[in-house]
Amino acid sequence: MITKGDDYPLHQTPDPIAYTGANRNFYDRYFFNGYDRSGEVFFAAAMGIYPYVNVLDGAFSIIVDGVQHNAYGSRVMHMERLDTSVGPVAVEVVQPLKVLRVVCDDEEQRIRADVTFTARTLPHEEPRFLRRSGSQVMMDVTRMTQFGNWSGWIEVKGRRIEVSPDNFRGTRDRSWGIRGVGQADPQPNPEAGRPQFYWLWAPLNFEEFAAHYFVNDDAEGESWNSNGIILPVSDFDAPPMRSWRSHMEFKTGTRHAKSATIDFTDKSGGDWHFELTPKWHFYMRGIGYTHPHWRHGSYHGELETGYDEFSVEGVDPTDVHIQAMCDVRLTHGDKRYEGQGVLEQLIIGPHAPSGFTDMMDMAK
Fold this sequence. Notes:
Blueprint: E1 26-36, E2 42-50, E3 55-64, E4 67-76, E5 85-86, E6 89-95, E7 99-106, E8 111-119, E9 124-125, E10 129-133, E11 136-156, E12 159-163, E13 168-178, E14 197-205, E15 209-217, E16 223-232, E17 241-250, E18 257-266, E19 271-283, E20 303-311, E21 322-332, E22 335-348
């Protein structure tokens, strides 16, 4: 069960806050994204707390006019978890499970923001993630997802963007538990097998509700964790789901979706058919994921900050961890709904249903 305490980075185990423990790869993380109704402005932020290695890192990223601007920070925690600020980036829990504030103040690169997330749905606790690789635990994670509106402002190279709750929506997640942190273990893992990871995540915003879907598959395409749910915003009647599935068509020469469909079947047998049309990509390395220098939990001394930027049209297709900004159409019986959201994709190694057989072969 998720409680107010779970919005604070104080966890010791993959369980909710009531339990304590220790593991070298323990982490506690905030993630946020936000976008306007046109889908032309997109921002994201992340902050990770790594108690065992005594490191805290964070990043803020925004796409404007086809350029992704990324501000990073990493520092020694000094064993104080509630100081959730690092370099230019800070996260504040204003009201647990309802209101959170994200600040970026990179004066040198002229990237500044003060934005507040206000929940429009209750938090959703996802099924527990547990995955072993040979003799080792690769993931043992609790995660919650929540949908909301944004308010505040962002400045990028002198351009000011007003962020209003009637125009900006998004998603946040909180996760904690065990997964790779900092430098990889140099000790070989003899039974690990070939690297493989298949992950799709689709948090989708509509007027009266939000839809949430994710799936982890093994190399044969068998799901080892997945979830589908409709979360009401007000008095929308959201039935429980009994099954869910997805299908992707890939862009030639990539592992990125050209189009995607997601299908829910509710407990009464009703079908919920989502059609996702990707518009462009946000690259997750802009907030540290798979970044060659700003790897999550890596040690950078007492304090290090940094910045990079790149055109989202010029990124190599081997940069596979993305969130695709999507227009979404939902058909449910004789009803039609228009929405928007992201389709996060991270596909490494073989995946039989997609036709991938090697570490990084691309769609034909």
